[in-house]
What we know:
Strand 2, helix 11 and strand 3 (264-269) form a beta-alpha-beta unit. It is globular, with a radius of gyration of 22 Å. It contains 18 helices and 7 strands. The chain has helices at 4-26, 28-35, 37-58, 73-86, 100-116, 128-137, 139-154, 161-178, 201-204, 213-226, 244-258, 281-292, 297-312, 332-335, 337-343, 353-360, 372-375, 402-409, and strands at 208-211, 234-238, 264-269, 315-319, 348-352, 384-389, 420-425.
Amino acid sequence: MRSFAYFTIKDRLPQILTRVIDTLHRHKNEFFEEHGEKGIEAEKNTISLLSKLRNELQTDKPLVPLDDNLPDVPLWNQYLEYQQNLLAGNEKPSWFQSPWLYVECYMYRRIHEALLQNPPIDDYDVFKEIKFHSFFESQQAIIALCTYLQELRKNIEDLDEKQLQREFFKLLQVSLWGNKCDLSISASEDNSQKVNSLELLDDLKHFILVDDMESIWSLLINIKKRRTPKEVTRIDIVLDNAGFELITDLVLADFLLSSKLVTEIHFHGKCIPWYVSDTTKHDFNWTIKQLQSANNRWMSKCGITWEGSIRKGVMVYHDHIFWTLPHEFCSMAQVATDLYTELQKSNLIIFKGDLNYRKLTGDRKWEFTVPFHQALNKFHPAPLCSLRTLKSDVQVGLKLGQGEQLVTSEPDWMITGKYGVVQFDMSL
């Protein structure tokens, strides 16, 4: 039987490349207006490189070293050598004979390379249009969430511990299910959020396969109780998708700050356009500007508040090349020591989404009952949790028989985004 990985590489990745080529072609006039003939020439050359890339993929050609001027090139090329050394004799790593996680990351990095090699369109985000569309199509859901947050903020000081816990669980689940909106899974088809996610939480609760929310709450409330006035409590959120999901992450962050559960939130995004809908610095800033200028007062209020939090340094955005490498997170301490050291300052790291989960667990075919802590393979800069809706066939930390039961009743349970996990690991 062919795996989900096989169908991803055979069908979904070429579809994404075709859409990227189409996007560049449709923006030809824009490139001409901005850059003249040089823009047209760059567009033609980029399309030519991407068509060649698609052909390499579809005909299972060997993977080739990267050749641009970004600082991550040596790391990528060393990783290709590492894959080569795992193979026997003269075999070379190719599209269908290499690990899925590596090949998928490699494709997105090659898309970026094709643009980098063709100034003046080298800084063009080929996924920008799709991300913008997803944001605007999710307007009603965003309004509902911003309205809820502003109402909550009015009397947040008066909430007792039990009420605070209830609101925390609610917004953590909103952030979890916000992760359903993933454009790389739908091969960049529309996947926006059309309904008020707050109203769906009760219906979705029994689709959470692992629920460690109590443990996360316990960690945060105990830190809050022990904190001295000048002490910092910091949460890091390793972001996934732009659009509606990013709004859910910002709303959760705002709640954590307003309730004084934490004093600082650090967001981590991607340096380059990645997996269609992943958040870049431009997406992050653009989203906040869109909210500020929205004609809905509560959206606008959120945008203004968050802009203020960024200025004050209580919300901080970071990016790092490690997040767009093919490496598992257990290699971060060696490959990106500076990032690992930065994450060690955190009281809790929240990893959003499926790709982060795959990198946390090494994207291996673990037994379903293997503990989350074991699958992390010694990656532990700080207490951490994963908020993830399942879109790939790796899952750990389930109860005995739970996975097998799902395999029988729903063969596709791991890849549809229907199920979610809130998995926590405390021990250092």
